[in-house]
Amino acid sequence: QKEVEQDPGPLSVPEGAIVSLNCTYSNSAFQYFMWYRQYSRKGPELLMYTYSSGNKEDGRFTAQVDKSSKYISLFIRDSQPSDSATYLCAMQPGANNLFFGTGTRLTVIP
Amino acid sequence: EPEVTQTPSHQVTQMGQEVILRCVPISNHLYFYWYRQILGQKVEFLVSFYNNEISEKSEIFDDQFSVERPDGSNFTLKIRSTKLEDSAMYFCASSDRADTEAFFGQGTRLTVV
User: Fold this and answer.
1) How near does any CA of chain B get to the CA of A6, in Å?
2) Is the pLDDT of residue A7 over 70?
3) CA-nearest residue of chain B to A50?
4) What is the pLDDT of residues A42-98, one digit of tens each?
């Protein structure tokens, strides 16, 4: 069983749409949850970092964690063509290394 | 804004050769990591380093790999005898604590021919 499951997409949306990206996980020891954005052949860029169930908002981005369901989401409001990238979820069981999802490739069409 | 820097951006090497990938972590960070990403696959953990020693390593990080912090700023990953399957993007990351977010460099693309 994979530790972190993420739909690889690809996902195409029109500009201005609300995007929903999701990951599920099996390890209940995961305590910290991150979303990274990765442009082609570049390093992961941290978008959001959360450690408790609930919502965290930063501009157009909202991260949601549901530990009881082992499910996390990233919502992007008013999506822009510049949001086109691969979005990686990552999780950490305390003070340990990160476990990544496969990434979801998003294209926002102007 | 502070960032993790990696050199070179692209390295081509012959199978069996040694390579050293270099990283300069964010200056006040204490925890350092190497990850790799084979083309089309997920980012995978290799090793974490704290207080001048390895704190954790994955199954991938076998005897062919080693890490070093030769001075106060650099953090290196050495692959002693490269194999074709070592071809990947290698990312360095750093964090100020073990349980906080890690910031990644832009990566070194290693191509073994």
Assistant:
1) 10
2) yes
3) B101
4) 899 999 999 888 999 999 999 999 999 999 999 999 999 999 999 999 998 877 789
- State the nearest Cα–Cα gap between B75 and chain A, in angstroms: 17
Rounded CA separation B106/A39 (Å): 10
pLDDT for position A2? 64
* pLDDT(A4) > 60: yes
* Full 3-state SS string of chain A: CCCEEECCCCEEEECCCCEEEEEEECCCCCCEEEEEEECCCCCCEEEEEECCCEEEEECCEEEEEECCCCEEEEEECCCCHHHCEEEEEEEECCCCCCEECCCEEEEEEC
CB A52 within 8 A of CB A38: no
Burial B29-51 (b: 16+ CB within 10 A, else e): bebbbbbbbeeeebbbbbbbbbe
Residue B42 and residue A42: Cβ atoms within 8 Å? no
CB contact under 8 A, A102 and B106: no
